[in-house]
Automatic annotation (TrEMBL):
Signal peptide: none annotated. It comes from Radiobacillus deserti. This is Hypoxanthine phosphoribosyltransferase. It comes from the Bacteria. One of its GO terms (cellular component) is cytosol.
Length: 181
């Protein structure tokens, strides 16, 4: 285990099993469609990659890079588009893949944007949901796991760009971010 991790909240096996469950569900739901899966970089990368391996029907992938945390523990409240989609959203069935919904700012910004761009339907799929963090009213359609109000890292989630590569979700030892809160 990484030396900066205090405890593992969700194991690699739990995550992989959930990805399979979600991917198979999406396969059934979109069997006769050609949805556009949108991964929200960078955090959603491992989750999107694992979920889509279990989607056994036609699906297109694209990515959007938005950032609201800028290396901080708390969201700045301002969402910035770092990279936009290459694909037209109009008339498409959209599946947004996220690693976590915390304040909800990132997703509510994206949902508004895709509505404005005339998506036919929008589904929000998130690995983690932290309901206690919410400052705007938004709910995911599919949630992998609920997490407590702690700063979690791993499997796409970073602290200062570290830990995204861990195969599990864990809580950092306080000494790692001591004096920065
Ligand atoms: C994190 C996370 C979500 C978002 C959730 O991304 O990956 O996208 O914040 O927080 P919110 O619900 O409060 O908006 P971040 O902006 O840190 O960029 P990253 O994915 O590149 O780490
Ligand atoms: Mn993110
Ligand atoms: Mg981040």
């Amino acid at each position: 285990m990484n030396q900066d991790i205090e405890k593992v909240l969700i194991t690699k096996d739990n995550i992989q099993q959930k990805c399979q469950e979600i991917g198979e569900g999406l396969t059934k739901e979109y069997m006769d469609k050609f949805p556009l899966a949108i991964g929200v970089l960078k955090g959603a990368m491992p989750f999107m990659s694992d979920v889509l391996r279990y989607v056994d029907t036609y699906i297109e992938m694209d990515f959007m890079d938005v950032s609201s945390y800028g290396g901080e523990m708390k969201s700045s409240g301002e969402v910035k588009i770092v990279k936009d989609l290459d694909t037209k959203v109009e008339g498409r069935d959209i599946i947004i893949l996220e690693d976590i919904i915390d304040s909800g700012l990132t997703l509510s910004y994206l949902v508004d944007l895709f509505k404005y761009r005339k998506a036919k339907s929008i589904k929000i799929v998130t690995l983690l949901d932290k309901p206690e963090g919410r400052t705007v009213d938004i709910k995911a359609d599919i949630v992998g796991f609920q997490v407590p109000n702690e700063f979690v890292v791993g499997y796409g989630l970073d602290y200062q760009e570290k830990y995204r590569n861990l195969p599990y979700i864990g809580v950092l030892k306080p000494r790692v971010y001591k004096g920065e809160e």
